[in-house]
Amino acid sequence: MQLKDLRPRSIKTRVTLFTLLIFVVSMWAVAFYASQMLRSDMQRVLGEQQYAHASALAAVVNSDLENRVLALETVASAIDRDAMNDAQALQSRLEGLPILQSLFNSGVSVLDAKGIAIADVPRTNGRLGGDYHSLDYIATILKENRPVVSAPIIGPTLKAPGFGIGVPIHDNQGTVLGALVGVVQLDKPNFLDRIIQSFRGQTGSYLLVAPQQRLIITASEQSRVMEVLPPAGVSPTLDRFIQGYEGSDVFTNPRGIEVLASAKTVPFTGWYVAAILPTADAFDPIHDMQRRMLLATLVLTLLAAALVRSALRYELSPLLDAARALANLPTAGEAAQTLPVAEDDEVGRLIGSFNHLVQTLNLREESLKDSESRFRNVMEHIPGVAVQGYAMDGTVTFWNAAAEKLYGYSSAEALGNNLLTLIIPPDMRDGVAAALQHMAQTGEPIAASELLLQTKGGGRVPVFSSHALLKPPGQPLELFCLDIDLSDTKRAQEQVRQLAFYDALTGLPNRRLLGDRLNQTMAASKRSGLFAALMFLDLDNFKPLNDAHGHSVGDLLLIEVARRLCTCVREMDTVARFGGDEFVVMLGELEADRAQSITQAAAVAEKIRTCIAAPYQLTVTHAGQPDTFVQHHCSASIGVVVFTNHEGSQADILQWADAAMYQAKDAGRNTVRLHSPAG
Length: 679
Hints:
The chain is an alpha+beta fold. The longest helix is centred in the N-terminal third of the chain and has 67 residues, at 11-77.
C-alpha cells in the first residue's frame, strides 16, 4: 500500500480536512505566541513592581535599623564614667526614657566593660548581672568600639529568637566603659512586622534573610522564622541572592515550587528583603486565557467543519466555474479585478473562511484586553500601595483605592484630570512635566525616590514613589506610579532626630546641635560684621547636692537651671547643655563695635549669674508618698568670649570660653570672667 492510497478520494473530504488543518494550526500558533508574549511581559512588569516593593521594604527596614542605632548612640553619649559607677541612677535614667522600650520590644540593657548587665529596662528575670561577653557581637562592641547589629540567635536569657543592636559607651578619651544594647524579639510584635503583614497574590510572601548565616530572620509565614536555607549548590538562583544579587528571577525553590522572586539588600546590615510569588498565582490570568482559547478553538473548529462540509456537499459544482474564472484572470501589468461571487460557492466559502480567521485574531485581541483588565484589577486592590496610571501628557487613566485614601481624591474625581494639578506641588510641576516629556521620548521611567506630594486638602504627604512604563499591544505608552506612604516613618525619624540633637533631661540643644548653631553664628558674623558672644557656665556646689540627695534631685536642679537660663536671653539666642553640669549660652548679632559688644555680653552674663545664684527649692515626688522639698544654694562660674568669624575656629572659641570659666573658678566662683585676646 502506497501513501497516496491513504488519501481520501473525495475532494469534499480533502478540502474539508485541509481547511480544518489550516484553521486549527493557525489558532494554536496564535494562542501559543500570545501566551508566551503575555507571560514574558507580565513577568517583566510583575518583577519590576515586586522589586520596587521589596526595595521600599528594604529602605524602611534600613531606616528603622539606623534610627535605632542613632537612638542608642544618643543615650550612650549622655552616660559618663560616674553614671556607670552608679547602677541605681543608671537604672532610673533608663526607666526615664520610655522611647527606648518602644524601639526595642525585649528591652534595653547597660553592660559594663566586662559584658556584665548592670541596668535593664524593663526588668527581665535572669538578665541583670548576666555575663554576655561570650556573645560575639557584644565582644565586638567592647573590643572594636563600634555599633553592631547581631545575627539572629536564640537568646541565652529569653530562649527565644531575636537579635541585638548595641553601641559602645565611652568617655571623652575614647575608653570603652561598656555597651548599651537593645534586643528585638522576633516572636513578639516588632518593627519588622511590616514584612509579616505584606502579602502578594493568594500565596505570595516576603522574607528578611541574613545571607551570612543563610538564615530567615522574619517572614510572612511565621513558621519560617529562624529557618536555615539550603546549603550552597542546591539552588543556583538562591545562591545568587545570597551573594548579593539585586533584582528579579524565576526559579524553582527548595520546596519544588516555581516562583517569581525579587531581592533587595538592606545596606546597613547586609541582610536582604525577598519578595516571592508562585508563578501559578502570578500567571493565573494567562492560564485562564489559554483555557478560554482552547475552548473557543474547539467550538470554532466544530462549527467550521460543519459549515465547510455542508457547503461542499451542495456547492461543489460551481468550483469548475471558479476555475475558469481564475484561468481568465488578467496578465501581468494589468490591474487585478475581484472575482465575482454570484452565489455562496466554494470560492466564496474559502474567502469567508479567511475572514473568519481575521475574526479569530480579533478574539485574541479581546482576550489580551481581558488580561489587561485582570491586571488592572490586581493593581486596584494592592493593599498599602497607591497605584496611578497616566498617559504621557499626565492625564490620569487609573486610580486605585489606596490612591484615593492617600491623596483624598476619589477615582471619579481623579480620572481624566492631569497629574500636575492633582498631586504635584506648584514648585515641582515644571520638573515633573520635563520628566514626562523625557520618558515619552526615551522610554526610560523616572528613578524611584522619596517625594513630598500634595493631597486634595492642600497638605503634603511624604511617599516613596517608583515608576513603570507599559506598552500594551496596539495602545499608546502608559506610566504607572506606585506610591507608599512614608508618614509614619518620617514621624519616627523626627523622634530620633529629637534624641540626636536635644538633651533628653533638659530639652536644650546638645553638644552636636550647639556645634551647628555656632557654625551658623560664625557665618552670620562674617556676612554682617557684627560680633557674637559665647558663655561657658559650670555650676558651683552641684556635686554636694548629688552626693546628699542622689542624681534624681540633681536632675531637678539641672532642669531648673536650664529654665532660668532661657529666661535670661533672647529667643534668637542659643542655650545648650554641654554635658554634666556645664552649659553654653551663645548670643548672636551684638554690635559692630567690640567694646559695645563686650558691654552687652557682660550685662547678660551678670544677669545670668544673678539668676542662677538665687536659692532653689526642689520638689521631689515619690510614688505613693507625700512630696518632699529640698532647698539648695547654687551658683555658676561663667567664662565669656566675644568674637567675630575671622578670629578663630569653633574649637578655639570653645577653648577660650572654657579657659575664662576656669579663671572665674580660680577667682572664687560665682563670678564672670571675660577672655582677653592675645596681644
